[in-house]
Amino acid sequence: MLLHQQFIRMAKKHSDKLAIIDRTTDKRVTYSKALIGSLILSKKFQIYDNGFLGIMIPTSAGSALATVAALMSGRIPVMINYSTGAETNAKYAQQKCKFKTIITSKALLEKINCPVLDGMVMIEDIMAGITTGQKITAALKSKLPVRLLLNLVHKGDENETAAILFTSGSEKDPKAVQLSHLNISSNIENFSNYVNINESDIILANLVFFHVFGLTVNLWVTLTRGMTMVTYANPLDFQTICTIAKEEKPTIMVGTPSFFWGYLHKSEKGDFESIRIMVSGADKCPDALREGFKSKHGVTLLEGYGATETSPVISVNSFEHNRPGSTGKVIPGATVKVENFETGEMCKVREVGKILVKGDLVMKGYYDDPELTADALVDGWYNTGDMGFFDEDDFLWHAGRFKRFVKIGGEMVSLVKVENTLEKHLPMGVSCCVVDVSDEIRGSSIIATVTIEVNKSEILKKMGDELPNIALPKHFLVIRELPMMSSGKIDFRSVTKIVQEILSNPDKENLDK
Prior knowledge:
alpha/beta
């Protein structure tokens, strides 16, 4: 299934239905208007070079239609992260994928203080340049039968690249992930059927489209299944998101634990009354967060697991099969195996090993990086870089990134497990992150970072009842605001750098406070 062609089919089928409720610009766009808008933009995009076309627009109707129009015009949207280091990210994308044109927004650049770079084209200028004749032409085209309309846009093949997305770069430089139409559409089909998403659903689409969670689950799920999305550009505007949820009555909401914590704290009882399916992903979902939504809103927060390279959903809990703490059962169409990280043999039940994934959901590869692709993809199996295990009932449990395991005294210690144990004994509202700082003389040291001063001795005593001594943090450091990625994940790379700076400072003024 080609994504843009499926959008056309849905637009023709649901012409009067709302496709996008844009709460950033207060616009309500029907499927028929969305089709006309994307046809106009598609024509406009044809003056730019073939191949890649950068998209750097906040979550909105404009961003959604520009992404669709890029595919309609035969171009491949390169989704650029504008939330942190927009100038650097834009230049990196242009250099990595060897293209020039980036469709962006004048208002965005002013807001984030990003200079206009060579190749940038403002969406405001494009919209201002649309003539009455172009509007009429697009409107007439939109009235054509589906079969004729599909012949007027890019045809292509389902194995063609549908998007370039960049990995978060929380551990190293971002990689350019090539996702095909087949990757994304098969993932949508399989997980949507598994959790029972249907065309009457309304998605609260507040995630950024330059991350796969937002691109697939917010944008393409909506437009390929004939649903309605409620867009808002800032997922960190917790109060406004709660108000939107109350007013627009969405039935589906997905997000990261850090976002959901914000919504839980800022919401009033009844704000999320309409929510039917709420899924947390991208990071471990704490028990306290699940319990908070259940007690305050009566909503069951389900946990899922995925990766940019898998389009993204690998496993997810559902109402029929929900085991809190796990990441659910593997969705249809995906095959997962867990291998011993040393021997390569299949792990036994509850034995932690490397998580590998196979199926139509797995990416084509990293753009212009055959070595990295060969490392990640072996015989069709994608090495997620994550560790986990299956339980007796085939629920998949995530144990953390392989790089978030550290060998101490010959034992593999999971920093995620240390983090989860620490989290249970911290005062309400205190965040934490556990990192490993190694040197040649002392070896590995587990360091706990917390957002306020805590009673280290008391917490270590409680942690010692659940963890071996080698897994207990050697130091507690205070970092008032833990650096976050735009996806809502903690930026481990930045936390580790801060910890190294603190430890190398002779006065170590906030050490073990």
